[in-house]
Amino acid sequence: MSNPPLLEVKNLYMHYHISDQEIVKAVSDVSFSVYEGETFGFVGESGCGKSATCRSLLRLIKPPGEILSGEILYKGQDILKLSPRAMQQFRGRQMSMIFQEPMTALNPVMKIRDQITDALYFLKNRKTEANEYAVDLLRRVGIPLPEERIKEYPHQFSGGMQQRAMIASALGPKPGLLLADEPTTALDVTIQDQIIKLINNLRDELKMSVILVTHDLGVVAQMCDRLAVMYAGRIMEMTDTVTLFSKPRHPYTYALLGSIPTRANRGKKLEPITGAPPNLANLDPGCPFKPRCRYAESVCGEELPEIRELKPGHWSRCHFLDKAESFQGVIEDYQQ
Ligand code: SF4
Fold this sequence. Notes:
Layout: E1 7-17, E2 23-34, E3 39-43, H1 50-57, E4 65-74, E5 77-78, H2 84-93, E6 95-98, H3 102-105, H4 112-117, H5 127-140, H6 146-149, H7 159-171, E7 177-181, H8 189-206, E8 209-214, H9 217-223, E9 226-231, E10 234-240, H10 241-246, H11 251-258, E11 308-311, E12 314-316, H12 331-334
Parallel strand pairs: 3-8, 3-9, 6-7, 7-8
Antiparallel strand pairs: 1-2, 1-4, 4-5, 9-10, 10-12, 11-12
Helix pairs in contact: 5-7, 7-8
Bound molecules: iron/sulfur cluster.
Iron/sulfur cluster binds next to loops.
């Protein structure tokens, strides 16, 4: 990547201080960059820190959660240093977020029109223009009869339409970066597909970047240029999507890829990942994946592996990178 990144996150730590005895290490030593116009994905099991990372970017962490250290540079400016007021203006205008549950973002007692036009700071005092712009946004996200539907309340919309309305509201201020946290998980497969295509199209049309959080490798394969695999609050592997699916270099990534049905393994027995992710309030000193890793050796229980760059842009956190399997996956297997 020759241009400087739009977003650069360096050594981010975010923990929940439940009590002096219980500290949940939700995000630890997370570093990554997002470039203009690309979709960057976070993938991993529930509770691995991907949503917590995403919320930290917008400083949406509530006590007892706290960002302890790190830098979040957006166009070179560290947003952790912004005042609360400046941060409020930053949200939406520069970075917007869409959630799994649209009703967490939409106000149930406000008409859709008001929810969208409220965020149009750059059109203020021009009511007609804001209304036209909001109708256009609803049309772009595929809501039929937008001139009529804009006068309705969220409960009058179906789940898929609420998701579209939330996307329209998030895109209204033309953010440079859209954070999408499990945007399709609560939807049925047909609507899921439409929302994926919609976000991809809007990303290209509006020339914005997207950070996608998901546990669904099929969605990642369809949407992301690059991605990070997270486990126990840390990035385990990070590379471009094609490489991750065809030449992964971390045992947790092998396990994830081997546990889901694809065209290639149709009819074969899937291999679920045995065991459960660790308790983030009680992490052992070594590699957090050790209890579930079939390559583990004694050093894995003693020392946390550093994340290392294997070749430009491909990072992995494992003591035994030379043990990489020849993995015969291809990305097309997952794009269904
Ligand atoms: Fe497995 Fe050890 Fe690598 Fe961790 S460091 S992923 S336990 S081989």
